[in-house]
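ok so I'm stuck.
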Amino acid sequence: MFDVVRAVFPDDLKKVLDLYHEYVNSTSADLSFQGNDEEFNQLPEKYSCAESKIFLLRKNWKPVGCAAFRQLDATTCEMKRVYIRPSARGSNMGAKLVDRVLQEAILSGYNKMCLDVLPEFKTALKLYKSYGFIEHPPVTNNPVPGTHFLGLNLDLYSQALQRRNH
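replied:
not stuck anymore, here's the structure
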């Protein structure tokens, strides 16, 4: 059984950090430009509000993935650190996680979501494009060559979702 729950701090801090460290170590790119140590030390403060949230994907109550969004400004947020452990990949759980992040961003009042995708994450890029993400000017600094910068109008996504459900 899979489910997606919001990470609650301090209870879920170790679970989130374990997944974040796996994510950072899973890429061939040097992600030190992100200032991970500083951000990881401030997760509870940064992601315990309505504007920025972290979610855990669980299989039989054990964490196998995560995703987050954070506020960029009053109308725009950034999806961050979508990661699924290799043992849980291929089961369409990435879509379940992205669905939850998009729904929560809409509930939090955002009109646009942006993200960046490292060139080696081809499956993730395909997934984001299936939701309607399109090329977008960068909203954060990512110097890794070949990185894709994407954005999604959440109002259009919400309207498409409503049409599908009717």
